[in-house]
Amino acid sequence: MMMARKQDVRIPTYNISVVGLSGTEKEKGQCGIGKSCLCNRFVRPSADEFHLDHTSVLSTSDFGGRVVNNDHFLYWGEVSRSLEDCVECKMHIVEQTEFIDDQTFQPHRSTALQPYIKRAAATKLASAEKLMYFCTDQLGLEQDFEQKQMPDGKLLIDGFLLGIDVSRGMNRNFDDQLKFVSNLYNQLAKTKKPIVVVLTKCDEGVERYIRDAHTFALSKKNVQVVETSARSNVNVDLAFSTLVQLIDKSRGKTKIIPYFEALKQQSQQIATAKDKYEWLVSRIVKNHNENWLSVSRKMQASPEYQDYVYLEGTQKAKKLFLQHIHRLKHEHIERRRKLYLAALPLAFEALIPNLDEIDHLSCIKAKKLLEIKPEFLKWFVVLEETPWDATSHIDNMENERIPFDLMDTVPAEQLYEAHLEKLRNERKRAEMRRAFKENLETSPFITPGKPWEEARSFIMNEDFYQWLEESVYMDIYGKHQKQIIDKAKEEFQELLLEYSELFYELELDAKPSKEKMGVIQDVLGEEQRFKALQKLQAERDALILKHIHFVYHPTKETCPSCPACVDAKIEHLISSRFIRPSDRNQKNSLSDPNIDRINLVILGKDGLARELANEIRALCTNDDKYVIDGKMYELSLRPIEGNVRLPVNSFQTPTFQPHGCLCLYNSKESLSYVVESIEKSRESTLGRRDNHLVHLPLTLILVNKRGDTSGETLHSLIQQGQQIASKLQCVFLDPASAGIGYGRNINEKQISQVLKGLLDSKRNLNLVSSTASIKDLADVDLRIVMCLMCGDPFSSDDVLFPVLQSQTCKSSHCGSNNSVLLELPIGIHKKRIELSILSYHSSFSIRKSRLVHGYIVFYSTKRKASLAMLRAFLCEVQDIIPIQLVALTDGSGSIDVLDNDLSREQLMEGEEIAQEIDGRFTSIPCSQPQHKLEIFHPFFKDVVEKKNIIEATHMYDNVAEACSTTEEVFNSPRAGSPLCNSNLQDSEEDIEPPSYTLFGEDTSLPSLSKDHSKLSMELEGKDELSSMSNFESKLNNKVPPPVKPKPPVHFDITKGDLSYLDQGHRDGQRKSVSSSPWLPQDGFDPSDYAEPMDAVVKPRNEEENIYSVPHDSTQGKIITIRNINKAQSNGSGNGSDSEMDTSSLERGRKVSMVSKPVLYRTRCSRLGRFASYRTSFSVGSDDELGPIRKKEEDQASQGYKGDNAVIPYETDEDPRRRNILRSLRRNTKKPKPKPRPSITKATWESNYFGVPLTTVVTPEKPIPIFIERCIEYIEATGLSTEGIYRVSGNKSEMESLQRQFDQDHNLDLAEKDFTVNTVAGAMKSFFSELPDPLVPYNMQIDLVEAHKINDREQKLHALKEVLKRFPKENHEVFKYIISHLNKVSHNNKVNLMTSENLSICFWPTLMRPDFSTMDALTATRTYQTIIELFIQQCPFFFYNRPISEPPGAVPSSPSAVAPSVPFLTSTPAPGQPSPPQSPPPTPQSPMQPLFPSQLQAEHTL
C-alpha cells in the first residue's frame, strides 16, 4: 500500500518535440507554419503572453546567446496539465526549427551539421545551460525575463507533433510542404515514437489543404489529426493531450473535436466573459472623464476582469473600456443638449416675448436680434471654440447658459418656429378672452350667482369654442361672477346702511324675531340691489345677519368699513399727534422698558401654574413676544406654586413688577392655597408706599381636571369659586366658558382678553397716580362728540386737520385714544372742551349713557348712507342737546354750484333737518377741507347756553336709575337705546358675563351730605353713587357688550361725568345738589321732572308687582324690582302730575314754566321714517316672547324714553325690565347641561398628548402610534358597536388609557380590556388636545370657498385640490382618519353611524372653529357637510377612484324651506340630513336654532 501511494504521488513527465517545415524563405515562404505560436499558446495560454511574431532570422550574437545557445531548437519550458481523466502530468516542450543568419540568410552553423529532417527526428537533445524561450524580444535582453534552464541540459523526446500549415502561405506551395512533411514523417517514424499531425492556422485554412492533410494522415497508418488555431486558441491543448495519451498507453483514446465545434465553444466562452466584463465596467465607470489606468487598478481583483483579460488580453479590455467612455460622453452631451433645448423656449419667452417684434423674422435674423438684448448673457454663452459638444464646455456643469452656436442646429430652428406659433396662438386666445369677457360685461343676462349652465347659451359662439378650452372660459366666467358678486355685495351693504333708520328702529338683538326679519324683507324687497342677490340667498342672508350683528354689537371689528373704520383712523391720528400724559409723567429710562411689557403672575399649586405658563409660552413667538391687537408685547410669566412669603415665591422682585395675577384651582385644596396666598401677599405690602399689590388685578380660573379622585363635583367647585371671586372682587372663569376644549386650561382668545384687561389696568393705574390728571378732568367745561361716517368719500385727516393743528388743542387726560381737549374763547370766558371724535356706530353706544353737551355730525352729500346714518342717530337724541350738521360737498358747498342731483338733494335735506330741529348747519367742500374752528363758535355758544339744563337732566336720569335697580343699571349700560340689549347674550346658551370691579378706592371722589337733599338721603349707605360712577366709567371707556368673560378692567371713577357737581369739588367745599347753580335764569326747576324719591319712599300699594329674581350677572345675589309701570289714568302711577305736585310742595314751583324734553324725531318730519315699526314689536327674539308679550306690546306703544332722562309720565316699556324678564325666562327653562370637562394634563406632564403633530410622527411612521393602535383596536372589535364615536366613554378610563400609553408606547389595548367607547373617546381627545386642529385654519377657509361651488363634480375636484395643499403630516393623518370613518360608515346598518352622523361627531374635533365670530356660527353646517363629503367620497379624495353617487334624493332649493321669508334660508330638520352635494344654508335662519344636532355632538367630544 505504501508503494502504491508513493507511485500515485509521482507526476508523469513527457518531453514533446514540435516539428514541421522550416528553413530559408525559399523553402518555407515568407512566414513559418506556426510551430512557435502553437508552442506559445500551449505553454503560456494567457492572451497577454501570446505573441504572433516569432522570427527565425537572428543575428550571430542572438544565435549564440543562452536562449538559442547555438542550437536549432528552442526550449519552451515546462507545463503542467490535467488530462481528461483528471490526472495531472508535466510536459517539456521543444520546438525544432532552423535559424537563419540575418547577414547571409543561410542557416547558422551549429554543432550539429545534419539537415533539418534528420535533426528534427532526434530523440536525445542536449544543450548545457540553455534558457527557456519567451519571445523574440528576449534575445539579447535575457536578464529582463525569467531565466529558467532546460533540465539537466538534455531531454529524451517521447513524441512528436508534426505541424502542417493549411493556410495560404505566402510564396509557399502546399504540395511542396506535404512532400517535406512526408519525408519528415518517414524520418520520425523510424524513432518508433508517437506522432500526431497538427493542422495549424485553421482559422485561415483552405478546405482543399485540410482535406489533403487528412488524406496524408490516413495514408500513414491512421495517424491522428488535430485541427488547431493558435491565434484563436482552438484545440491547442487537445493536440498535446492527444500525443500524451498516445505516449502513455494506459490512457484512453482522446476524443478529437472538430475545429468548428471547438471554435464555437471558445467563442461562447469569450462572449460570456465579455458580457461580464462590460457589466463590470458599466458598474464602476460612471463618468466619461475616467482613465484606463485608475479603472484597471480598481478592476484588477475582479474575476470578470481577470477572465476576460486571460481570454482576450489587456488591449481588448482597454478597447472595450474606451468604447464605454465614448458612450458615456455621448450620453452626457445628449443630456446637456436636451437641457439646452428645454431652456431655449424659456429664453425666447424672456428675450423676445413680443410677437410684433419677431413675427416676420427668420431664425438667423432672430439670432442677431437676441445678441442685442440686455439679458442676452443671462441666457446664452458665446464660446471661443465651436461646436460646443467638442469643447470642455460639456463638463462645465455650473454654467447652465445655452451655447449660442446651438442656435445653428435644426432643433433650435424648430423651437424658434414653435415659439412663433405659440405667440400667434396666444395672441388669438387673448383676443378671444377679451371678446369673451366683454361679452360677459355687456350681456344683460349675466347676473350675480347665475350658474354657467344657464348663461352658456347667451354668450358662447364658435370662435370661443375653437380657441378657448372649457377650463379657460369657466375660469373667466368664475372670475367675472366673483367681481359682480363682490360688487353686488358691496352695493347691498351700502343699501343696508342707507336703511340704517329701519335697523335701529327695530331694536334688533342677536336673534331677531321672524316678524322683524319679515319687515326687513318687505322694506328692502323692491330694491334692485336686494333683487340682484336673488340667486345668492345664503350670502344675502349672511350679509343681513352680519349687519344686524354690527347694529347690535358695533365695534371696529364688526364695522362694514373695517379696517378703514373711522375709530381706528382717529386713534392713529391722535396717537401720532400727541404723547399721552402718562408717558410725559414718567422718565424715559423707567417707562421705555415697561411700556410694551406685561408681567403676569400665575398662581396655582400641584403644577397648575407651570402647566398654564407652558401653554401661554406655546402661544408666544420665539422671543417670548405676544401679539395683542396687532402690536407686539414682551410677556414675562412668573409661575408660583409655593409659600408666597418666601422670597423665591414672592409676587414682586427687584426686577419683576406684576401687572396682574391668574389664580388657578381644580380642587378645594388648590382653592384654599389661592386664597391664603392672596391674603399673605396683601398683608406683606400693608403700610408700604408701593402697596399696589392690594389692588393687583386678579382672575380666578377653574381649570379642567382629569378624573375626580376626591369626589368633588364640578358644580360645587364653581360655586366655591364664585364665592371667592366675589370676596376677592375679581373675575371668575369656569370650564363652561366657550372655546375651552380637551387639554386646554384656557384658550388663546381668553388669554388675549386677560392680557388686554391687564394693559387697560396698567394704563388706568398710571392715570390714577397722576394728581394733575384728576384736576384736569374736573376742569372740563363741555363735552362735545364729533360724529363721522365710516366709509365716506373724504379723508378724515383733512377734515380733522384744523382741530388737531389748532394751538389750543391738547391731548385728552382721560386715557381715551379718540379725544382731545380744546381751550376756546366762548363769549367772555375761555372754555375747556373735551372733543370726542367717534364714528356714528360708536356714538350710538354713548348717546343715552354719557353726559354730552352737543353733537357735531358730519355727512357726505355724495352718499345716501351717510345722511341715513345721521338721521338714525338724531332720532334718539333729546331735543335739548344742540346739534351742528356739517355737509361735506364736492364743490364750494353752494347748491347752485353742485352738478350732481344727489349732492344737491342731500345738501338741501341736511339744511331742512337743521332748520326743523333748530340746529346749526354748514357745508365744507372736500376739495378745500381746511376749514377753521371758528365756524363752530355759534354752535359752541348754543352749547354753553344749554349746559346747565343738559347736566341737570343727565344727573337726574342717572340718579333715578341708580335708585331704582342698582345692579340692573350696572349691567345695562345702554338701556332704552336700540342697543339696550348689548349685555344680553347672543343666545340662551351663552355664558354669564363677569362683573367688572374697581381695583382701588379714590378718596378724592366728592361726596354728598346726608342733610343736604332728599336725594343724598336716599343714596346714604347704599353706595349707589359708586356703582353709578363705575357704570358710567364703563360707558366712557366704551366696553363692548360682553359675549365672553372679560379680563378685569380698571375703571377710573373720576371720569368727567361728575362735572354736574359744579364748582363745589374744585373749591374743596361740599355743597348740596340743590344749592349748586345748575338752574337756568329762565326759571327752569328740576322739580318739573319726577324725583326718584317718589319711587323710593312711597309706600308700596297692593297693586304693585314685586319681582325677586336671581340676576344673570350677580353671583348668588337677589334683586328686588318694583313694577311701577301702571296705567296713568287714575293718577297713581309714579311720576304722574298729581303725585308729582304732592311730593314737591316744598318747592312751590309751577310745572308750566318749562316744556318737557322730547326726542328730535318728534320735532322733525324727516326723522323717524320707520318709527311705526318701533312700537310694532317687542324687544327680543321669538323664543323669548312668553305670555307677557301682549302686555309688553301695550306698554311699548305709549311713548319713548328720552335721550338723557327717565320720563316716568311717558310710559314706554322699560328695556331694563325686559332684560330682567328675559333672565327670568332663562332661569325657568330647563338648564342646559354643561359640556364635560376635557381631559387635561393637570396631574402629569405628557410628552405625547397636547404636543404639535409633527413631534409624534416621522417620515417612516406618518401616523401617530397611538392613533394607529386605537383604530386597529376599534376596527378589530368595535365596528358593530352601536353609536360608536357618538356615545362617550368613561372619563377616568380615558385618562387611564392615555396615562398608560404615555408611559409605555407598546401598550396592548386588548390585554388591558378597555371598552370600545373608551378607546374611541381617547382617540378623539388626542385630536382635541393638538395645539392646532388637524384641518388647518387657513385650509378651512379654502374648503368653505370650494364648497360654495354649485356643480357637484366641480365642488369635489375643488375640495380635492385644497386637500393636496394640506401639510404633509396633516394630510397623511387626515387620510388615515377619514378612511377609517368611511369603513365605520359602511357598517351603519349595525352601528347606526352613517357618514352624516360621523361628520356631526367629528367635525368640531377635526376643525375646531372659532364660535365667537358670526362667520363661524353661520358656517357650522358647511363644516359638517365638508367632513361628510370627505367620508362619503373617501375613495375619490385619497385613492383616485371615480366619484360615487350620493345616497338619497337631490334636495330642493335652499330658499324653498321658508316661503314666508324668501331672502332667508332655514336649517333642514334634524331628522332629514342634507345630501353632501347641497350647500348648507349659510347663515342660519333666525327662526330656528343655529345647529341643534351639532350641539349635542359637541357635548360628546
Radius of gyration: 54 Å
Amino- and carboxy-terminal Cα gap: 96 Å
Structural class designation: alpha/beta
Please mark out the parts with pLDDT under 50 across 5 or more consecutive residues, or reply none: 1-7, 580-595, 707-711, 736-743, 766-778, 962-1154, 1178-1243, 1448-1501
Please give the order of strands in the largest beta sheet: 20-21-22-19-23-24-25
The percent range for strand residues is 5-15%
Give the averaged pLDDT, no decimals: 74
Number of strands: 27
Tell me about the largest β-sheet.
Answer: 7 strands, mixed
- The number of helical elements comes to 57
Helical proportion, percent range: 40-55%
Shape summary: elongated
Please give a structural write-up.
By secondary structure, the chain is an alpha/beta fold. It has 57 helices and 27 strands. The strands form seven sheets. A seven-stranded mixed β-sheet has the order 20-21-22-19-23-24-25, with helices on both faces. α35 links the parallel β24 (883-889) and β25 (920-925).
Short description:
The protein has 1501 residues and is α/β, with parallel strands linked by helices. The protein is 43% helix and 10% strand.
